């Protein structure tokens, strides 16, 4: 680069001279005010301007540098454009959150803390882990703000009801007035069949149904007297049938009623001879529903064995008793799901007639969450 100095009267003059003499190759590098020569007695101020003039090599170098810079800027611009496009499309996707059912949790990290607390309660109540997980999934929805499955409602109770309703079948035994219905309770010994029959007989009688009871348990000492004591209080007919033929006769005698409850002698689920005998009693009874009665204080494997063995009688629901005595009501859910049977009634104590309820999702949720009261 060559350096030139010029004396001018103003900066504008310096620019004009630089441009006209050297074109684009020159730039003004600095300026300073200097005293010019005296003319007669007067001295004048001038502007000394330093000009840098690039030789052609320098110019080429500068030019190619500038070109590189420009192409780099163009690259940055197009990258920025791509980034802006990506940001725009992500924003659009976020406007439509994924539907709740699409989310399939693979591990516990997919659930919120309060959902995990509910799972813990279910497992502590004896619900099998995989069943608890399934119920939990159905009690939850995907919360996009926390990116996890969270309970659908504010409280455990409402959310659990939702989960139960998707997994557990209820058997609403619909009795009609003026149409005879017959309900027989079968099951292992001592589970509460006779007590439950007394509770049911009272429950439906107080709703205006005409009810009666037949017992097949004629050989256990005191069995008939036990039932007699309840039935006489309720002022309803009681018959004792000691043979299949006598059972059919008794049904005929009580056929003008709305509901007949049949109490059976407790049978071990492993006593196939006695089970066959019971089957023989019940097989030709018209309009018959059979409910397996099991105690929730029994080992769950025994409950499932009972469901399997008694299934040859044609059971259509399970009654769970003694829920007041168990810390693990989760067996109700496990048994219903594994035996693929609906639950019809739940009993909570020895008191006749009070301690019985038709099973529903509300009382099931209560039992599972509150435990023993
Ligand atoms: N804690 C509690 N005890 C119950 C319940 N239901 C029945 N029991 C008691 O269980 C015992 C047996 O009841 P039963 O009704 O005689 O049982 P069962 O199935 O008829 O017995 P078997 O006829 O001998 O097979 C009695 O002491 C009842 O009071 C219940 O829901 N909770
Ligand atoms: Mg009995």
**How would you describe the shape?**
rod-shaped
Residue fraction in strands: 15-25%
What order do the helices and strands follow?
Answer: EHEEHHHEEHEHEHEHEHEHEHEEH
Q: Spans of 5+ residues with little confidence (pLDDT < 50)?
A: 90-105
Q: How many strands in all?
A: 13
Small-molecule binders here are: guanosine-5'-triphosphate, magnesium ion
Structural class determined from secondary elements: alpha/beta
**What integer is the average pLDDT?**
85
Instruction: Bin the helical content.
Output: 40-55%
- The CATH superfamily of the largest domain is P-loop containing nucleotide triphosphate hydrolases
CATH architecture assignment name of the largest domain:
3-Layer(aba) Sandwich
Characterization of the model:
With 373 residues, this protein is an alpha/beta fold. The protein folds into 3 domains: 2-54; 100-165, no CATH class; 181-370, Rossmann fold, CATH 3.40.50. 43% of the residues lie in helices and 20% in strands. The chain is built from 12 helices and 13 strands. The chain has an 8-stranded mixed sheet with strand order 8-7-9-6-10-11-12-13, with helices on both faces. It has a 3-stranded antiparallel sheet with strand order 1-3-2, with helices on one face. A hairpin with an 8-residue loop joins β12 (343-347) and β13. α10 (300-310) packs parallel to α11 (330-339). The radius of gyration is 46 Å and the shape is rod-shaped. It starts with a strand and ends with a helix. The model is unreliable at 90-105 (pLDDT under 50). The protein binds guanosine-5'-triphosphate and magnesium ion.
